[in-house]
Design goal:
- By secondary structure, the chain is mainly α.
- About 70% of the residues lie in helices and about 0% in strands.
- It has one domain.
- It has three helices and no strands.
- The radius of gyration is 15 Å and the shape is elongated.
């Protein structure tokens, strides 16, 4: 875990691209729900669908690396 290079979490030169894509995609998705669909935000909060969306993006991205 604490290796500077080649460790378990090294991925691509220290960058986990599926993780970064999930972070950016999740932020955009959250803003879209929170501001474009305020009725969803008021009823169930934008966080719940965003959690599902980010988990799916990350899982799909990581499965392509394996």
């Amino acid at each position: 875990m604490f290796k500077l290079k080649g460790g378990r979490y090294w991925f691509s030169n220290g960058w986990n691209w599926p993780g970064i894509a999930a972070l950016i995609g999740g932020t955009i998705f959250y803003w879209m729900i929170a501001y474009a669909f305020p009725q969803i935000r008021q009823n169930i909060t934008a966080a719940l669908p965003t959690i599902v969306f980010v988990a799916l993006i990350y899982r799909i991205g990581m499965s392509r690396l394996e």
